[in-house]
Amino acid sequence: MKSNRRQFIKFSAIASSLFAFNKSKSAELMLSKTKKTVKPIVISTWRFGIEANEEAWKILINNGKALDAVEAGVKVPEADPNERSVGLGGRPDRDGKVTLDACIMDELGNIGSVACLENIVHPISVARAVMEKTPHVMLTGEGAFQFALSQGFKKENLLTPESEAEWREWLKKSDYKPKVNIENHDTIGMVALDMNGNLSGACTTSGMAFKMHGRIGDSPIIGAGLFVDNEVGAVTATGHGEEVIRIAGSHAVIELMRQGLHPEEACKRAVERIILSAKKRNKPLNEIQIGFIAINKNGEHGAFCLQKGFNYAVYSPDIKNQLIDAKHLL
Ligand code: SD4
Residue 150, Cβ neighbours under 10 Å: how many? Predict the structure, then answer.
C-alpha cells in the first residue's frame, strides 16, 4: 500500500515535470543562442563508439560532411565479427538468421532505411542507397536484399561460429528474455555536426538477439531509433526497441530540444515518458533498458538512460574521444 503510494507520488512528479519545461524555455533558449558553437562533434552509443568515432572524426576534421562521417563511423562495428550485435557476427534470431536493421538521415531531411536485411555486411550503406537511389525511404527483407545485390553489394554469411554456438546454446531453453544492458544486444547509433554546421545521423544493429524472425526494432524507424532536424539537433536511441517505438523516442527528444531544453535534459524527459508508458502497461521497469544520445545545433551533447550501465563516446575539439557514463533514472 505504502509503496503504491510512493510510486504514485514519484510518477505524478515525473508526469508534472514533463509539462513543466515551458517555464524555463525562454531562458534556456537565450542561453544556447549566446553560446559558441562546438564543431565538429560526433557522438555514438556504447563502447564501440570510440573506434567508430575515430573513423568519423577523420572525415569531420577534414571539412567532410556529417552524412559521410556517420556512415563511415558505423561501418566499423558493422564489419567487426567480434561485435556481436551489429552487422557481421551479429547474434541471430530464433531461427538462426542474422537480420539487420539500419537507417540514415541527413541535414535536408533525406532518409533511407532497411529492415530485416540478411547476408549484407553494411546495411547502413544499403540504407543510404535506398535514400539516394530509390523513390522510397524503406525496404525490408528479400526486397532490400535484392536491391542491395543490384547496387553491387556482395552476399555474405554473417553468422560466425561464435554467434552460431551461442544460438545453439540458447535453443536448449528457447527463452526470450533480453537482458537490460550489453549482454545480448547493442546498437550503434551515431550523430554528428560538421564544420559547416550540418547535422546527420546513422543507426545500425542486428537487433535483439533471438527475436522472432521478421521482428523489426526501433533502429530502422526514422523518428524512433534516429531523428535529425538541422534547425534543432540530432538524436539516436538504443535499448528495447519496442519501448522506443511506442513513444517515437528520437523525435520526442528533438521536439523537447526545440523547446529549448539542453540535450541531456531532453533525453531525460524522453526516458521519463518511457517510464510512464511502461507503468501504464504494468511492464516491469527492471526488464527494460533505454538510452538516448543527442546533440543540438550548438554542438552541445547529452544522454540519459533508464538503468545504470549505458555509456556513449564523444569526440569534439574539447573532448578527444572519451567514453562517458550516461546518467540513469532508476
Ligand atoms: C532493437 N534497439 O532492435 C535495438 C537493440 C538495441 O541495445 O539497441 N540494443 O530493439
Answer: 10
